[in-house]
Amino acid sequence: MHNFLNGKSAAMMLALSLVNVTAAFAQDDNSSAKEEGNRNVMLNAASANGPREIQIGLPSADVNVLENGLPVTYATNPHSVNTIWRGDASLSHQGLLKIAETAITTGNIGYAVNSFTQKGQKGFNGTLNYKSNHFGLQEFSLNMNGDLGSDWYYSFNMYQDFDPGTFKIKSTPYQDRTQIYKALLTKKYNGNRGEFTAMYRYANSHSVYNYATSGAPFIYVGDGSVKEYGDFKLGTTSYLPVDNDMTYRDMRTGELKQTSLYDACLNKTSEVTLMNNYRFDNGLNWKATLKYDHSRGAFVFQSPMSIIDLKSDANKGVYNYKYRDIDGQTKAYDGQYVQTRMSCLNAGKIDEALFTTELSKKFSTSTFRLGVNEWFYHIDYCSNTTMYDQSVPADGSYALRIWDANKRDSYFYDFNKNASEYYKGSENKLALYFTHDWDVTNKLNLYYGARLEWQKLKGENAAVKNAKGEFVGRFADYYLGATAPDKTKIAPADLSYNWLNYDFSVAATYKLTDNFGFTGDFTYIVQHPKFEAFAPAALPNTDKISVPLGRAGIYYNNSWLSLTSLFSYISKTNNNSTLNLQHGSEIKAAPLTYDIQTWGWTTDAVAHPFKGFDFHFLFTYQKPTYKKYETSITFSDGYVGNINATGNIVAEIPQILIELDPSYMITKDIKLWTSFRYFSKTYANINEAYYFNGHWETFGGLNWQATKRLALGCTVVNFLNQTGAKGSIAGAELITKDEAKGIKNQIMTGSYLRPFTVEFTASLKF
Fold first, then answer.
1. In whole angstroms, what is the distance from residue 660 CA to residue 663 CA?
2. Three-class SS string for 212-240?
3. pLDDT tens digits for 301-351?
4. How many other β-carbons are positioned within 10 Å of the β-carbon of residue 121?
5. CA 473, CA 345: separation in Å to the nearest integer?
6. What is the Cα–Cα distance from 726 to 19, expressed in whole angstroms?
7. Whether residue 27 has pLDDT greater than 80
8. Nearest CA to 21 among 40, 47, 45, 1?
9. Gap between the Cα atoms of 669 and 244, Å rounded
10. Which helix (H) or strand (E) holds 460?
11. Residue 604's beta-bridge partner residues?
């Protein structure tokens, strides 16, 4: 399932690359010209506790958050960043790495959140952060650090999150229950030239929100707008059945097993990190960081699929749906709608050892850096999938699990038939990279760098071929050891690959005057598929993935205005994806490889027109389009589902984005701020058949530095109280424009805007 989602994420992130931000020029160890400014990465309209995604060209399972120079998780499916990292009191710094910096140091193209753990300092220091909202969120973050004498320092961090979400569910009192602990011990040596730190982290997280918020019903009007379905309130009514238990067939053994959804999404991490920094007499700096992580990663999807209208003329008498009441008695279901839901229980045992070392030196007009990555990742992963049907209540009540008594006598069916996955083995990346930041003259600055990377994959998966050399595909009750309908024995298939990847980047800024100049950059990256691309029933395209990104424009700075305007181009070849296509009640997986291309124009400005007032403005026009996007699949009744989206606008991506961020210091201690983000019309399926009108995401708040040690804040999310749908529409990929013309006021399901939320924060220094 994750390959289908990552395909869409890749498109989204590629398009969002055109959101340019102005460089921040602070020159300390953590926040430097490597980072970009004017972007609050934690101000997120999609999540109450995770960083905002401003990334490009890569699936979400790639590096998107770094801590102490290493990725927080090597791959975010099944081990998501939010289960091990939060932007809390344990961090001394957070920033956003430039695209070129991310490409050279990690081998990925896109923005990356850059963070550093708070180390011990002289004396005793403490920070206690608290956040709540009117839905009942309770979030605590504590850092205590100090010195032990003889140049020894300590730091202890605790994070606790009790988040019930914006609607109540029955499977657990919390949609996010996360606890993270960090302990650091630091020794400074050789006259403070050297610093060695050992850090231990333990994390335990149940990310229920991944499946609890995956879809909701609404009425698609037909003109890009939606209206609520009966008493179901988008964002504040649960669309999950009361039942918490799931039955599935183990992909590895074939056994039928039961688990609770809460247990299925358990993530546990035990991690040790060693860091050493040393400054030599000749000005040479050496940094080395080693991390070993042993964890269980889990990611549960609950994807709404097709909706059946039981009271339509075509369906009368066809189905015989039943449910069990509170006493366990079987009763007939007399509702109008039934929806199929696919559950993907993704989980894996993970061991990763990541090592990065760098040498750097500042000269009179330049800084040179040479680095090595040795990143090893081992995983034993499978995704067990199961299907069930549920009611679609119009009265806002909890949905019921139901079953068609004409076909089966239990809730769950088609075990592992649709999006089940399996792979086991290791991925290793060994890379050498360098960067050179050079003031050629007092008017011309050049930044350039390159990376050479050896990628090795070795392991097994379940992409099984039959006697004709064709991939068998998944079928009901699929598992390792099963026999396919064509008599093929399902056994793990070995895989082994060795690839050479490379990146290079160059950026130039020329000052025509003290205030005005030209800026541009070009980054080119060559990758190959990561291990997770081998999870589905067919092998991915293993040709090279090339991503060129070029931007050029002007900048202007004076005492009250900083402005940058750029034209951009980016493309990406050989995106691997798996579409789950629906026809009637049947779902089939269709693998495909496609390209994406985007042109765009971005203008970013920060103004300080008068004392106390700041204003940030960002405008982006972009046109991301699919290239070579063609696939087809034949269903059991002979129907051939064809998709040809070549030339279409990438689904879920707006062509116009606007950000307006005014703020005003009412007094030296009180700040009033707002943030308005506009997203224009987006298509809700690949064929451009359905679409959603543009919408605003709004934030506002008041921050008060009450005393030297106490800061208070109030933030309102979605203060315009906009409601509506976004993203894609479930089960709609095969619908064409012509078919959609006659569809009006029809019930559908999809994602939705985060509801109106009032948040309260407090931070105490002691």
1. 10
2. HCCCEEEEECCCCCEEECCCCCCCCCCCC
3. 888 888 899 998 888 888 999 999 888 889 999 999 999 999 999 999 999
4. 15
5. 19
6. 20
7. no
8. 40
9. 48
10. strand 444-461
11. 564, 618
654, 684 in Cβ contact below 8 A?
no
Spatial CA neighbour of 492 closest among 511, 465, 520, 464: 464
Radius of gyration of the chain (CA): 26
CA–CA separation, 267 and 6 (whole Å): 20
CA distances from 259 to 243, 248, 266 (A): 11, 8, 11
Euclidean distance between CA atoms 423 and 416, whole angstroms:
14
Token pair in block for residue 743? 């569809």
Under 8 Å CB-to-CB from 490, ≥6 apart: which residues? 462, 464, 472, 478, 479, 480, 481, 482, 483, 484
Q: What is the DSSP letter of 6?
A: H
Question: What's the half-sphere exposure (Cβ side, CA atoms, 13 Å) at 570?
Answer: 32
- Determine the Cα–Cα distance for residues 324 and 341; give it in Å rounded to an integer: 18
Coil, helix or strand at residue 167: coil
147-172 pLDDT, tens digit per residue, is 999 999 999 999 999 999 999 988 88
* Bridge-based pairing state of the strands 284-309 and 266-279: antiparallel
Cα gap 599→596, rounded to integer Å: 11
pLDDT band for 401, please (50, 70, 90 cuts).
very high
Q: Is 721 exposed, middle or buried (0-12, 13-18, 19+ CB in 10 A)?
A: exposed
Cis peptide before 78 (omega within 30 of 0): yes
Kindly report whether the global pTM for this prediction surpasses the value 0.85.
Answer: yes
Residue 744 structure tokens = 């009006």
